[in-house]
């Protein structure tokens, strides 16, 4: 009803067999695994172990997931747009004949080797605020609901900077080559080097939390590019009909020009992004940025104990009942049916003074319940 | 029973019975890796801008200085060297082999040029980066004699016509076919300034890309002559003009090295250029120039690099000052909770 009528995204959570249809009907279904068997878990999109983990799931992991997906998708479009637009400006100079700017191998391996790993690392590890702060400020969840990080405005700004960067790449490299005797493939190798370096450094600029894997992947990607071009320029196989890139990088790297351009072009390309980030953070800060600043001096203690701790949320009475519930206890023999508790018949029978022993099949059934959970029926 | 957090955690660990099927704990999978959080505080922004400015401006000035010290003397001659009788019929002039194409001009060099002086020919509106042009070559054939017949992508300059025996052309392709064939002689005070035409091509090209056992064959013997003829007794690895020409340029206006002059040219020296105006650029409105140029560590005379550096450095310093002023006048205190959106507009959450 809420789903169709109010047209909101719905989340349902349940742990029993009777919750399966509700879990399936909602947009996001969460199953609790545990005492009542695994039916709910098998039908659900997410499975957690205890009800109280729901807060973590939503406020911490759900939020981070939204943030990461936004970053990964937008960055992917940006890096490909930049790379392709640089070629696009070249077509104006070729008489629109369709000559490619980059060598075939550069193009093929761009998304596979030279820019692939860093964005995966960001998608895995990026956190805007720590998990404890995420739970302390649940209002941060509104960023996801209002789709703050993937609005058209955000995408347009990234696209604009992509166009700007591609213009820098193409025109800086080609204008400084007007009076040089470098050929097409030398110019394009220079431009491609600048693109790879800039695009990887840009990723570091959008990270909210940088681990050593970020350094390894960004540095590794740039290094992979250099290793590749050293090898590619150094070999000449009998299988190539056209050997355009032979020795190009060695000649390039023997000129001052190469190093001067390598300092200038990425800096010029990232300059505007940097200014934009500075201005945005100062004058139009996001909520998570304020919270980052508020807690910037606190050590991020994300030890396991803290993750499971609920001490800051429970009253002493709640903490006590929680502690009691954690004590080892009898496994429940409920089957999910009403009036189906063990010894039900015998209880009411005993009240009337009739002796009704437990049925053999009932005993056997309950004893085998642990290994063979029954499929629940709809009531 | 009073419960303290320590006993809670004890109970927790006790409650986790052997039935728990937890995944193996690692900091990687639990996202607990050591991380630092980059926060772009105003002080960071201002210092980064200042550093960029302080590095870029001197580098830019050095580049600009070096570029300024380059002496470059361009001389456009495709219009100059067209005889006035043929002003309206340039094609007739250029295609007629009986007309003398020698063109003599005098040039005054206004600054001293120190050796080595590079002599370039510059072509304009010549699309060496056209797709069909770039593709029209065969590097395998250029490299070794055994692949002489490998003329796959060189059409239409792959085989001679059937009347001439349908033989493979070495070197094949339009790039080689359109080899530039203007020649220059430069003299000063009636003394020839020798133009050294050795080592003008990339060493790697000479050693590896163009074979020393490959000789030109059946070259420019068809009906349409596109450019220079090649001496059939010199192997390709020593045909430096061809090697330089075959490094296709990136833009429609480009320069290629013709040779080097190893002596100085003094101030206000009058040099006489003797140009053989053979190459047909009149058909497509191309432009030809002869350029004399010295070089420095930054290359030829190109102010763009220096200007770009100075521009970025200058804007950077301006922004540093601007941010500093803003910081002083309109500071947003770092980590001020009153800027949180739910504190600024209460009730906006729903």
UniProtKB/TrEMBL annotation, chain A:
Every P-type ATPase C-terminal domain range: 41-285
Keywords from the UniProt entry: Magnesium, Membrane, Metal-binding, Transmembrane, Transmembrane helix, Transport
Positions of transmembrane segments: 72-90, 110-129, 150-172, 184-203, 215-235, 247-276
One Gene Ontology cellular component annotation held by this UniProt entry: Golgi membrane
InterPro entries, per database record: ATPase_P-typ_TM_dom_sf, HAD-like_sf, HAD_sf, P_typ_ATPase, P_typ_ATPase_c
Cell compartments where the protein resides: Endomembrane system; Membrane
Gene3D superfamilies from the UniProt entry: HAD superfamily/HAD-like
Metal-binding listed as a keyword: yes
Membrane topology: Multi-pass membrane protein
GO biological process: Golgi vesicle budding; phospholipid translocation
GO MF annotations in UniProt: ATP binding; ATP hydrolysis activity; ATPase-coupled intramembrane lipid transporter activity; metal ion binding
A family per Pfam: PhoLip_ATPase_C
Keyword Transmembrane helix assigned: yes
PANTHER family: PHOSPHOLIPID-TRANSPORTING ATPASE DNF1-RELATED (PTHR24092:SF180), PROBABLE PHOSPHOLIPID-TRANSPORTING ATPASE (PTHR24092)
Matches recorded under NCBIfam families: ATPase_P-type
Protein name as it appears in the record: Phospholipid-transporting ATPase 3
Organism of derivation: Cajanus cajan (Pigeon pea)
């Amino acid at each position: 009803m809420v789903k169709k009528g109010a047209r909101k995204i719905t989340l349902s959570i349940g742990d029993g067999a009777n919750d399966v249809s509700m879990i399936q009907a909602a947009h996001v279904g969460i199953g609790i695994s545990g005492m009542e068997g695994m039916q709910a878990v098998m039908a659900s999109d997410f499975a957690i172990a205890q009800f109280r983990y729901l807060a973590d799931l939503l406020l911490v992991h759900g939020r981070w997931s939204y943030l990461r997906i936004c970053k990964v998708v937008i960055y992917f479009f940006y890096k490909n747009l930049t790379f392709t637009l640089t070629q696009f400006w070249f077509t104006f100079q070729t008489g629109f004949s369709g000559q490619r700017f980059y060598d075939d191998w550069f193009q093929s391996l761009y998304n596979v080797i030279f820019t692939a790993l860093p964005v995966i690392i960001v998608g895995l590890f990026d956190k805007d605020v720590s998990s404890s702060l995420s739970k302390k400020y649940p209002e941060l969840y509104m960023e996801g609901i209002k789709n703050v990080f993937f609005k058209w405005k955000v995408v347009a700004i990234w696209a604009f900077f992509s166009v700007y960067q591609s213009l820098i790449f193409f025109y800086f490299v080609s204008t400084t080559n007007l009076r040089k005797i470098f050929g097409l493939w030398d110019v394009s190798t220079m431009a491609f080097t600048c693109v790879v370096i800039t695009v990887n450094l840009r990723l570091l600029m959008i990270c909210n939390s940088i681990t050593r894997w970020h350094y390894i992947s960004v540095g590794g990607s740039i290094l992979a590019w250099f290793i590749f071009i050293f090898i590619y320029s150094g070999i000449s196989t009998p299988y190539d009909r056209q050997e355009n890139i032979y020795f190009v990088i060695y000649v390039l790297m023997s000129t001052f020009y190469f190093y001067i351009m390598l300092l200038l072009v990425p800096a010029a390309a990232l300059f505007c992004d940097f200014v934009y980030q500075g201005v945005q953070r100062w004058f139009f800060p996001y909520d998570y940025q304020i919270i980052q600043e508020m807690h910037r001096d606190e050590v991020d203690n994300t030890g396991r104990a803290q993750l499971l701790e609920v001490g800051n949320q429970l009253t002493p009475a709640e903490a006590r009942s929680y502690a009691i519930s954690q004590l080892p206890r009898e496994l429940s023999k409920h089957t999910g049916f009403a009036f189906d508790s063990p010894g039900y018949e015998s209880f009411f029978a005993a009240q009337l003074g009739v002796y009704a022993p437990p049925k053999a099949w009932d005993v056997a059934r309950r004893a085998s319940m642990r290994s063979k959970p029954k499929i629940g029926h709809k009531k | 029973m009073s419960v303290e957090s320590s006993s809670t955690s004890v109970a927790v660990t006790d409650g986790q019975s052997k039935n728990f099927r937890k995944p193996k704990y690692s900091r990687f999978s639990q996202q607990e890796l050591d991380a630092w959080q980059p926060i772009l505080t105003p002080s960071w922004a201002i210092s980064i801008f200042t550093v960029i400015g302080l590095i870029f401006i001197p580098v830019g000035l050095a580049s600009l200085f070096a570029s300024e010290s380059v002496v470059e003397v361009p001389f456009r001659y495709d219009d100059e060297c067209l005889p006035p009788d043929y002003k309206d019929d340039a094609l007739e002039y250029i295609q007629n082999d009986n007309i003398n194409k020698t063109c003599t001009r005098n040039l005054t060099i206004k600054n001293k040029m120190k050796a080595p002086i590079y002599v370039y020919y510059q072509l304009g509106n010549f699309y060496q980066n056209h797709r069909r042009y770039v593709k029209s070559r065969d590097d395998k054939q250029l490299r070794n004699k055994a692949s002489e017949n490998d003329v796959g992508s060189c059409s239409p300059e792959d085989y001679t016509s059937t009347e001439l025996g349908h033989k493979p052309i070495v070197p094949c392709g339009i790039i080689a076919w359109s080899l530039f064939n203007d020649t220059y002689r430069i003299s000063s005070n009636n003394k020839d300034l020798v133009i050294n035409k050795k080592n003008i091509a990339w060493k790697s090209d000479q050693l590896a890309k163009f074979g020393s056992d490959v000789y030109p064959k059946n070259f420019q013997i068809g009906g349409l002559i596109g450019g220079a003829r090649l001496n059939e007794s010199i192997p390709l690895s020593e045909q430096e003009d061809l090697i330089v020409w075959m490094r296709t340029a990136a833009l429609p206006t480009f320069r290629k090295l013709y040779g080097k002059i190893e002596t100085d040219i003094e101030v206000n020296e009058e040099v006489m250029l003797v140009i053989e105006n053979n190459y047909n650029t009149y058909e497509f409105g191309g432009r030809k120039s002869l350029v004399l140029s010295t070089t420095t560590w930054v290359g030829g005379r190109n102010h763009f690099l220096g200007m770009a550096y100075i521009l970025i450095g200058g804007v950077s310093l301006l922004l540093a000052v601007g941010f500093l002023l803003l910081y002083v006048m309109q500071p947003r205190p770092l980590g001020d909770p009153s800027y949180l959106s739910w504190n600024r507009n209460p009730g906006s959450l729903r």
